[in-house]
């Protein structure tokens, strides 16, 4: 539980800072001409290269080998990296047709496609309480956004600017994210890889895909981005901070993914949206209505249920292990001197699939 808490703290601290710089780079006018940076593939490429570097350094400091993956594993890496590269543009394209609150509201249900892809693609089964946890967290976070007070300046909560086309783009993005997360889970179960090894290979392959796209002679994005950085050098520091925070956050993400599964990771990233708003309430004195506080209770009830069940399972496992040890020692002690005692211990191994509380 202590390790999971450290992972959650690392993800929150890194990606809250990452989100700050992402918004700054995406929305802040730079220079006297007040130009905005619109080259988002460049941002993703910078972050991927930084993340691959951080993973390589981490593995080197830990003395862990970075051996070449097998052909089948390399194919899996290429597959999940390609899906990850494709998913991001759908999210940016959706913002042209729906407003940001609607995007957040829709992405709050990311737990659902992740679990669905695990079930459909890899035939994985989950205990009943895990479905309940997913439902509670999704309903709670979505309800919290839905019951937000109306802004008189912006009108209704995105209803006027939302479109079915924009929502369809978000649905495609969520589906691809679900395939990515479930495939990463399958890689961890099928191959003996660490989170940082997956982090390195996925990011280096994603960087290769994006570099090929940017080096396309018919694509002027790379030249335009370099020109923008030359004329607005202040953005270089913001891009660097964006990339570093994202890379460090990925270390926590892949460790969480390796140890606790994609559903645990997604629950952390989804609830981060809620904790960001709660932090804003404390820091800036915003008011929450009764419906929103009730949704906060729903989210924490789902997280609490998961934590309670996991703790109970762990205590039962420890108790069963202690009972087996005591019984074995008693048999050996009570055996006559000179006799031969054969003790057979049968251990039942259960496959662990976790959703407690991954890209963005």
From TrEMBL:
GO molecular function, one term: UDP-galactose transmembrane transporter activity
GO cellular component entries: endoplasmic reticulum membrane; Golgi membrane
Compartment annotation: Endoplasmic reticulum membrane
Primary location: endoplasmic reticulum
Membrane topology: Multi-pass membrane protein
One Pfam family cited in the UniProt record for this chain: UAA
Protein name: UDP-galactose transporter homolog 1
Organism: Linnemannia exigua
């Amino acid at each position: 539980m202590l390790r999971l808490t450290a992972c959650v703290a690392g993800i929150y601290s890194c990606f809250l800072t990452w989100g700050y710089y992402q918004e700054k780079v995406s929305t802040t006018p730079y220079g006297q001409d007040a130009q905005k940076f619109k080259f988002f593939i460049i941002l993703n490429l910078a972050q991927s290269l930084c993340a691959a570097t951080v993973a390589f350094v981490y593995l080197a400091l830990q003395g862990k080998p970075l051996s070449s993956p097998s052909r089948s594993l390399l194919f899996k890496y290429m597959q999940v990296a390609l899906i990850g590269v494709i998913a991001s543009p759908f999210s940016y394209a959706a913002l042209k047709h729906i407003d940001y609150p609607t995007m957040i509201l829709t992405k709050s249900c990311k737990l659902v496609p992740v679990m669905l892809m695990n079930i459909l693609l890899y035939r994985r089964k989950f205990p009943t309480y895990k479905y309940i946890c997913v439902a509670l967290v999704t309903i709670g976070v979505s309800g919290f956004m839905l019951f937000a007070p109306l802004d008189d300046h912006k009108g209704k909560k995105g209803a006027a600017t939302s479109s079915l086309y924009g929502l369809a783009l978000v649905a495609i993005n969520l589906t691809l994210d679900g395939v990515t997360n479930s495939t990463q889970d399958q890689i961890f179960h099928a191959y003996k890889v660490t989170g940082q090894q997956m982090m390195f290979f996925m990011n280096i392959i994603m960087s290769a895909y994006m570099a090929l796209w940017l080096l396309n002679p018919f694509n002027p994005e790379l030249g335009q981005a370099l020109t923008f950085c030359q004329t607005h050098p202040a953005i270089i520091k913001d891009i660097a901070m964006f990339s570093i925070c994202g890379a460090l956050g990925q270390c926590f993400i892949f460790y969480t993914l390796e140890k606790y599964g994609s559903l645990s990771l997604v629950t952390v990233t989804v609830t981060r949206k809620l904790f960001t708003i709660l932090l804003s309430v404390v820091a800036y004195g915003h008011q929450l209505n009764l419906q929103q506080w009730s949704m906060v209770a729903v989210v924490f009830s789902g997280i609490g249920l998961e934590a309670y069940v996991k703790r109970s399972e762990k205590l039962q496992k420890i108790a069963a292990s202690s009972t087996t040890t005591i019984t074995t020692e008693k048999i050996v002690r009570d055996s006559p001197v000179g006799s031969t005692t054969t003790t057979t211990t049968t251990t039942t191994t259960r496959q662990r699939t976790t959703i407690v509380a991954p890209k963005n």
